[in-house]
C-alpha cells in the first residue's frame, strides 16, 4: 500500500471515528446468575452407564459486559458447577470403559465442570423496561475429573484427563429493569456438552476415549448491576428513546 493510500485511509478514519463514538452508547455492567446446567450422562453402550457418570446440575455464572447501544452487547464470564460424584458396583454384565467389568468391582467418577464464555447479545424492548435477550456465545469447557476403580479390593485412580474443548452456546431470555441500575435476567440456553471427553487408561492399561454427556438445555436466573443505565430502544409500547 502506497503512502498516499495510507494517508487517505488515516484521514477517512479520523473523520469517521467521531461519528462512531457518538453513535455508540457504552453501558458497562456486572452480572451474577444461578445456573441449572442440566448436563445429563448418556454414553449409549447400555442404560446402566447413566448410573456411573454424575449429572452436572447446579452452577454459578459471574460475568462482566457492556451494552454498546440500545440493541447490542457483549459479555465475558466464568461458570463453575458444584462438585458431583457418581458411582456404580458392577454385576459382571457391564462394559463401562473398554472391557467387561468383573462382578463385585466398582467405580466412582468425581467431576466439576468449569467454563469461560464470551457472549454476543441482542436486546429488543417489547414493553417499557422489559426486553427479549437473544444470545450467541462460545464456551471454553474444562472438566476437572477423577475416576477411581475398585479392583481386587483396592481402589486405584485411572490415568485420566479431560481435555479443554471449545463449544457453541445460544439462547433466549428476558431482561427486566425495574430501576435504571438494576436488571433481572432469566435465560434458557443450549450448550454442546457432548464435547466433554474422558481420555485415559483402565485397570488393564487399555486406552479409552469416551464422550459420556448429551447436549444440555440450561436455565439461568440472575441479577445485573448496570454501572451506567442501558439506553432504551424504541419500545413497541411508547415509541420513546432515551
In short:
The protein has 242 residues and is mainly beta.
Largest sheet: 8 strands, antiparallel, barrel
The stretches of 5 or more residues where confidence is low (pLDDT under 50) are 236-242
Strand arrangement in the largest pleated sheet: 1-2-3-5-6-9-10-13
Here the CATH topology equals Porin
How many alpha or pi helices?
1
Measured distance between first and last alpha carbons: 43 Å
Number of strands: 13
Count of individual domains: 1
3D shape = elongated
Overall mean pLDDT stands at 84
Give the CATH class: Mainly Beta
Classify the secondary structure makeup into a structural class: mainly beta
Share in helix = under 10%
CATH architecture: Beta Barrel
Spell the H/E element sequence: HEEEEEEEEEEEEE
Radius of gyration: 24 Å
Structure description:
- With 242 residues, the protein is mainly β.
- The protein has one domain (26-226): Porin (Beta Barrel), CATH 2.40.160.
- It contains 1 helix and 13 strands, in the order αβββββββββββββ.
- It is elongated, with a radius of gyration of 24 Å.
- Mean pLDDT is 84; it is low at 236-242.
Walk me through the topology.
Elements: H1 3-23, E1 27-39, E2 56-67, E3 72-81, E4 84-89, E5 106-127, E6 130-151, E7 154-157, E8 159-161, E9 165-179, E10 182-191, E11 198-201, E12 207-210, E13 216-226
Antiparallel strand pairs: 1-2, 1-13, 2-3, 3-5, 4-5, 5-6, 6-7, 6-9, 8-11, 9-10, 10-13, 11-12
Amino acid at each position: 500500500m502506497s503512502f498516499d493510500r495510507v494517508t487517505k485511509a488515516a484521514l477517512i478514519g479520523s473523520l469517521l471515528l467521531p461519528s462512531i463514538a457518538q453513535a455508540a452508547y457504552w453501558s458497562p455492567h456486572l452480572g451474577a446468575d444461578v445456573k441449572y446446567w442440566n448436563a445429563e450422562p448418556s454414553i449409549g453402550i447400555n442404560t446402566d452407564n447413566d448410573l456411573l457418570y454424575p449429572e452436572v446440575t447446579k452452577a454459578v455464572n459471574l460475568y462482566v459486559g457492556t451494552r454498546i447501544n440500545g440493541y447490542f452487547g457483549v459479555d465475558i464470564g466464568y461458570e463453575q458447577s458444584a462438585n458431583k460424584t457418581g458411582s456404580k458396583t458392577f454385576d459382571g454384565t457391564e462394559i463401562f470403559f473398554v472391557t467387561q467389568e468383573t462382578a463385585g468391582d466398582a467405580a466412582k467418577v468425581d467431576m466439576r465442570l468449569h467454563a469461560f464464555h464470551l457472549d454476543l447479545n441482542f436486546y429488543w424492548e417489547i414493553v417499557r423496561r422489559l426486553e427479549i435477550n437473544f444470545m450467541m456465545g462460545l464456551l471454553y469447557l474444562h472438566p476437572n475429573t477423577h475416576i477411581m476403580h475398585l479392583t481386587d479390593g483396592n481402589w486405584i485412580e485411572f490415568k485420566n484427563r479431560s481435555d479443554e474443548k471449545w463449544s457453541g452456546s445460544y439462547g433466549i431470555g428476558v431482561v427486566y429493569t425495574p430501576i435504571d441500575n438494576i436488571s433481572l435476567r432469566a435465560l434458557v440456553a443450549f450448550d454442546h456438552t457432548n464435547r466433554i471427553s474422558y481420555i485415559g487408561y483402565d485397570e488393564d492399561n487399555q486406552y479409552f476415549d469416551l464422550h459420556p454427556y448429551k447436549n444440555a438445555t440450561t436455565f439461568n436466573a440472575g441479577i445485573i448491576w448496570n454501572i451506567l443505565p442501558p439506553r432504551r430502544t424504541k419500545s413497541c409500547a411508547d415509541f420513546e428513546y432515551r
